[in-house]
Every structure is written in C-alpha cells, then in structure tokens.
Amino acid sequence: MPGRRPAKQDEPAAAARFRVVLDGVEVAVSTVRGLAMPAAGPAPAPADEPRVRLGRVVTGDRRLYDWALSSQGTRGEVIVEVWGGRADRPVASWALVGARPVRWHGPDLDAMTADVAREELEVRYDRLEWRYPQPER
User: Fold this and answer.
1) Cα–Cα distance measured from residue 86 to residue 95, given in angstroms and rounded to the nearest whole number
2) Beta pairing class for 127-132 and 90-105
3) What is the Cα–Cα distance from 122 to 29, expressed in whole angstroms?
4) How many domains in the chain?
5) What is the mean pLDDT of residues 88-92?
6) Which domain holds residue 110?
C-alpha cells in the first residue's frame, strides 16, 4: 500500500483496510483495539496509560511475538494507517510514540471447538500522534 497518493480529506476510512508497522517492520494483524488518546491533564498512572491490542490468527509468522521479545525494556514506535474503501490510498495515520510491549497472549486451545487459534499483543504507549493528514494552516 505504500507509495500511493493520499486520499481526499473527506474520503471515509474503511475499518477493514489498515496496516500496522512496528519499528519500521510491517506486521499483518486482523484487529487493532483500543486506539485512544487520554484527555489533557496530569500524566496518567501506569495502570491507566493508554494501551492498544493487536490481534491476528496464529500462523508461522513470528514477527508479532519477536517484536514483543526484542522490545522488552525499550520504547519504539507503532504506526497504524487506515485506508480508503474506494481506493488504495491512506485516509489517516497515527503513531504510538514510546510504544512498548506489555503482554503477548497466545491462543486458547480446546480440542472440543473448531475455533481459529489467535494471538494478541498488548502495547502501552506514551502518546498518540495523528501523523496524516497534517492540520491545515
């Protein structure tokens, strides 16, 4: 999806068309939950820091797990882009600055179900920046 021209400002974003980049590496995920920015005021207590959950079906791709493992004790950046429903153009992009893994959740396994095995990575971040589009001046 990179390299395309930006979407028009009034083009609606499609919730099913997005990409996630962890410290410069694109990682396929099927859900992004909890994208939020706390209200202005005193810094939140650690338990109240914003968190996002990145989920996907378990495959042989270890990038989500490996990022969690290699990022312990460090802070990085997670980019979330949402794309237009009618064209291959980004509508909006956010950066989770100071991102760090909190918890990787492996799949719940049960031989009595036909559920798909899923993994989820929970990420805390210091602040959310709306990167694209930039405000008009």
Assistant:
1) 24
2) antiparallel
3) 13
4) 1
5) 79
6) 13-39+47-132
